[in-house]
UniProtKB/TrEMBL annotation:
Pfam families named among the record's database cross-references: Spherulin4 (PF12138)
Name the UniProt record assigns to this protein: Phage tail protein
Organism: Streptomyces lasiicapitis
PANTHER family assigned: 4-LIKE CELL SURFACE PROTEIN, PUTATIVE (AFU_ORTHOLOGUE AFUA_4G14080)-RELATED, PTHR35040
Highest rank taxon of the organism: Bacteria
């Protein structure tokens, strides 16, 4: 079922802002080009995840401080990575990590990695988010919260976050994926798709899938999971300039 976004009057929207949600590069010392590239004027970024050491780390990292500062000075929203571990990590641990991200890196919100999807886990996740938003209220708004499910969760999760990652995986699965019908009740700005292992020649097709399924935040890369420890998000895709040029003109500020 295609996703058709509409206004309250039933008129289809034509001004959806497609942009990138960057799930996190390698450490700035290992990926200096990647972090610098994100501050290029005109790059259509919705947010960038900062993951220092599977979280904020034990002490402020000067290289990450610099990278986050340059992004925020460029007007880019920076999100601290909180590993929820499918509900296994305790409330106190997550809030402690959030405090460090805010104190050290002045983040604008949080990306909840490995967020659970089932209905039974929702109350605890919602409790965590309520606390996170309270911590973020010193900023210009209540911050930005993204749930990194990687698949379609129980629909009630949409009430707790600003955005849901409803697909994270390889192009071989994405090109044949199906959208959950309940997502049509929400605008495209609420959903994000992260796709790895996508060849250059399929950019247009992938953008069509995202539009058809109603996701306005995307990240596509030709990097792959070359082993169990490999992270396809650590480096820029080989076609970064091309995809920026294709997505960029469609962004209205």
């Amino acid at each position: 079922m295609p996703h058709l976004s509409s206004t309250a009057t039933g008129v289809a929207q034509t001004d959806v802002r497609v942009g990138f949600g960057v799930p996190g590069f390698a450490h700035p010392l290992l990926a200096p080009t990647e972090w610098t590239e994100l501050t290029r004027p005109g790059t259509p970024l919705h947010w960038v995840v900062l993951n220092v050491d599977n979280g904020p780390g034990d002490r402020p990292d000067p290289h990450c401080l610099d990278a986050a500062g340059r992004l925020r000075n460029a007007g880019v929203r920076v999100l601290g990575h909180l590993d929820v571990t499918y509900g296994a990590r305790g409330f106190g641990e997550l809030v402690s990590d959030a405090h460090r991200y805010l104190d050290w890196y002045l983040v604008d919100g949080f990306f909840l990695g490995r967020c659970p999807t089932e209905r039974a886990a929702l109350p605890e996740v919602a409790r965590t988010v309520t606390t996170l938003r309270a911590l973020l209220r010193d900023g210009p708004d209540d911050g930005h919260i993204v749930f990194g499910h990687g698949t379609h969760p129980y629909p009630g999760y949409a009430d707790a976050a600003d955005q849901l990652v409803t697909f994270a995986g390889p192009w071989s699965a994405y090109r044949w994926s199906q959208v959950a019908e309940w997502t049509a009740d929400h605008p495209p700005e609420r959903f994000c798709h992260l796709v790895h292992g996508m060849p250059r020649g399929h950019l247009d097709e992938a953008l069509r899938v995202a539009r058809w399924q109603g996701a306005s935040t995307i990240y596509f890369t030709d990097r792959t999971e070359a082993g169990r420890a490999a992270d396809p998000w650590e480096a820029l895709p080989g076609y970064w300039d091309e995809i920026v040029s294709r997505v960029g003109p469609g962004v209205s500020e």
